[in-house]
Fold this protein.
Amino acid sequence: MDTRATKIVVCGEVSHRHEADDHLRGPGTAVLVRRGPLRSIVIACPDGCGGVLTINLDARAGPAWHLYVDGRGTSLFPSIWRDNGCRSHFIVWRSRIFWCDNRADVLDTVDTEVVKRVRSSLTTMFKSYISIAQSLDIVPWAALVACNQLVRSGAAIAGEGIKNGEFKTFE
């Protein structure tokens, strides 16, 4: 039986990391830690292994993920890749978990308005989907999906090799 979660459910907010574990209710449940600014998000590993992940959201404390919360759900960027324990690797976008393994899910929720905005931001110079997302103030996963849609429709070119993750329009 597959115990993997398919969604992230934020079920509370606490002031200190040690308070978070009591609020976790199973794989994919999460608790925000906020003391002034957001400090971290604590997640019951969605793989179902029983592990608990503490994801830094505070750039003052070192490399940090970015949390996005909007009407479509909760997103984290970049992906989460456990280098110990179950070694799971996944993306959280719009409260959905996309697995990055041999059963990989596909980021495929195309938003036509986002595609239009991304298309208008592309030039003949390669740009990373991350910088496109930053310039448009959107979740990077949404920018990546839009860029891939533009490539499939013939309106953009995807970079290869060291340009992987970069996109441009035709010359």
